[in-house]
Amino acid sequence: MHMMLNGKDFVRLGHTLILSVMVVVVVCSSSSYATPTDIYCLKTIKASLEDPYNYLNSSWDFNNNTEGFICKFTGVECWHPDENKVLNIRLSDMGLKGKFPRGIENCSSMTGLDLSSNKLSGPIPNDISQKLPFITTLDLSSNSFSGEIPLSLANCTYLNVLKLDNNQLTGSIPLQLGQLSRMKTFSVSNNRLSGQVPIFGSSSIQVDSYANNLGLCGGPLASCPGIVKKSRVGIIAAAAVGGVTFMAIFVGIVLYYFSRGVVIKKKEDDPEGNQWAKNIKGTKGIKASFLIQNIAHRKKLFLISSLHK
Ligand SMILES: *[C@@H]1O[C@H](CO)[C@@H](O)[C@H](O)[C@H]1NC(C)=O
Ligand SMILES: *[C@@H]1O[C@H](CO)[C@@H](O)[C@H](O)[C@H]1NC(C)=O
Ligand SMILES: *[C@@H]1O[C@H](CO)[C@@H](O)[C@H](O)[C@H]1NC(C)=O
Ligand SMILES: *[C@@H]1O[C@H](CO)[C@@H](O)[C@H](O)[C@H]1NC(C)=O
């Protein structure tokens, strides 16, 4: 049973295969000039960041041209230890300052970027999906990034984890991010965001993902003012329909018992049965136990079942 794949699994499997093929294609097609590209990427990153504690300066030494030498750099993980092809960059909590490092686009097959808990500022680039097309984990939390969350993130199809919390981001969250079907962790708490939040498929994205902003609404949060108006109309309509239905049922029941009453009256030669009918009318819940307890009393049983038809 657990081995059976449903449609969603097949789509996932398909995506995974496509990603694998794409990565293989990227790695293979660029292998001839892979080394200069990824080395250039890290050189650019190092040059663009202020590194007051010398983390990069002491470790990122470009004077060694051995294949795979960048894979020993602090925070750099390669696809293979003997190949200068960057898989992940993790530079968390190093006191780094500066803008989002633009040179990152030259690490063309990177899947994870963690720049959390630094002092980076300025905007997140609008074309981030072109810079990081295969990104699965992006952690820019606990910096001073400002401006809006770029719409282009919605094109990062493989994103599982997007952490933008504890920055100074403003504006609204692009609703298109809800299309990212692999998203499992999403946090934008402690920013200055407002407006409607995207609707994600994952149930793990809850209220705390959005805490401490200027006024977010929708999804797991309280519904948005504009939406409330719409849903109020819906509630009124539903109430009207419900009211009419209730009245119809009520009238139907009254008419039904009215007509039954005539039948029961005819059976007043069975006073016990009449008493039953009265009891049943008052208490719906005991119907089943009545039926079981009195299964032998066929005549009474018939009376009950006819009352509840
Ligand atoms: C870096 O990436 C940009 C954009 O993809 C490209 O135009 C440029 O040639 C790359 N530089 C190197 C040294 O690979
Ligand atoms: C980088 O490290 C070298 C020695 O490893 C040192 O001479 C140089 O001053 C450092 N640069 C900065 C900007 O701290
Ligand atoms: C260059 O890097 C390789 C692999 O990290 C290391 O074994 C070698 O000692 C390094 N050479 C120099 C001159 O730093
Ligand atoms: C997302 O990708 C589509 C298709 O490649 C493209 O047309 C669109 O401009 C992209 N959107 C952004 C915001 O980059």
Characterise the protein shown here.
This protein is α/β, with parallel strands linked by helices and 309 residues long. The protein has two domains: 199 residues, Leucine-rich repeat, LRR (right-handed beta-alpha superhelix) (Alpha-Beta Horseshoe); 37 residues, no CATH class. It contains eight helices and twelve strands. Strand 1 and strand 2 form a beta hairpin. Helix 6 packs parallel to helix 8. The C terminus is likely disordered. The site of one 2-acetamido-2-deoxy-beta-D-glucopyranose has 3 residues, from helix 3.
Structural topology:
Blueprint: H1 7-29, H2 34-48, H3 55-59, E1 76-78, E2 86-90, E3 97-98, E4 112-114, E5 119-123, H4 128-131, E6 137-139, E7 144-147, E8 161-163, E9 168-171, E10 185-187, E11 192-196, E12 215-217, H5 225-266, H6 271-282, H7 287-293, H8 298-307
Parallel strand pairs: 2-4, 3-5, 4-6, 5-7, 6-8, 7-9, 8-10, 9-11, 11-12
Antiparallel strand pairs: 1-2
